[in-house]
Predict the structure.
Amino acid sequence: MRERIISKTLLIHLGAILGASLGAGALIQGVLGYERFWAGLFSIALLLFLVSCGLYLAWKQAGAGKALAWMMVVAFIIRLGYGVLLGWGLPRYGYDERPQQAGYVFEDAYRRDRNAWTLSRSDQPLTRAFSDDYEEDQYGGLMALSGLVYRYISPDVHRPILMVILAAGAMALSVPFLMGGLKNRVSLQASLWAGWILVLYPDGVLLGASQMREPFLILFFTMMFWAASRWLDRKANGLSMSMLGLSAAGLLLFSSRVALPMIGVVILWVWVVKSVLLPKTWMKILGWLLILLTVLVGLWLMQDWLVAVLHWDTLQTISRSGRVQFHLDGLPGWLHFPFILTYGILQPVLPAAIAAPAPWIWQSLAIFRALGWYLLFPLLAYTLVRVWRLAPSQQRKFILVFVIIVWVWVLVASARAGGDQWDNPRYRTVFLPWIAIVAGWGVATARQTQDRWLKRIFLIEGIFLLFFTQWYISRYYPYFPRLDLWVMVGLIVLLSLGVVVVGWVLDSRRNQHSLTQDGESL
């Protein structure tokens, strides 16, 4: 009887998924206006149905919780909807450039996707995507997947929205893996915050609404994190080990250079957790020496590439921005790289997004992306200080490893892409699952302990934004008065120091008052 009820419920759910897929497919086909309406509806609805069934099964496997269901549904719908909006709006309201007229935000996505369509229509095997014939995808994994979709689901017409469906599905599928990996490691509130940050972070939404590899890298990363968590909890089984192998293979196929740091940080985290159980001190020392040696060997092997890339990206940043060149000319040579690095950390710059004139679709996108980073950055800054105040424990080690790795990656991404407002945030977002964990823990901790320093960090950021928004407005609209850059920086520093000092004094007085009250009650 129970099995019959379960089967009936499953059929009802699958029927609802099929109906929603057909309705959404018709709507998307109607909005984007691909040739051959019925063939387009079938192709889009078929892929929507397959992806939705995969998400449904993952949700059931993860425990079928309501909060998780909402996260997955929202993650999928907002990315799919935004992808449709961009595909419809860019040709109409974007710039007169080929990628935008074809509905693409990223030029490399445009080139790779068109090559995938060409490959799918040829008689060549899809493994040709991994050859040197297609330089637009130096790894080949995403092009091969795109070619597979176009060859067997949409062979008649190039429908780029199909890859958006897969990218949105990959981001939604990463949510249950993240939440499962966090189980019993942080508080429920911290894990919920982390999940929603992963779902709603703007650059994650944009990449999940585009034909990019990052959503798939994020999915593989969360799968590996989940599998490693299961192994640490001694709950490893065939499924988790299969996911571990699949995620490692996926990372290597989609981006071997990103795969190495991702696999490395998961191994490092597992080592930090497990090393405390080793009975001998020399074993721990030997383990750390091996990790250090591996890092040094990796850096040595990649040194030519790293130096070339960093030099190239720095030159690109300088050449594209006369303002950056102007300020660098006034600085000694040894300060050039720190300046570019700091500029990169601040990208995408919210005041510039607000002030710079642009078509509405681009300005709204710029503000959306920048606002997300400027809401997230104070949380990362707060956790960088707050984690050291935790008492020694397994949770402290867990959070500390994540905080250090996240900040190292933020700096690496800023150095790797200089001050670029597109590549820099894109590289940073690859580690979004762990960034979300750190930020979620920060929000939950500040709320639980009623720590006022998080609000003060936001206040300091508000001072920065207020001055720089006015500065950028005066740059684009000269009739507004304008402060000298370094005078403005000095004022920001002084006011920020004032916030820190006043906050410290107020906390000291509260602590003293609390001690006095405790003494009187005794």
Summary: Residues 485-521 form the longest helix (37 residues). Residues 62-254 form one domain. Residues 402 and 434 are 7 Å apart (CA to CA). The two ends are 65 Å apart (CA to CA).
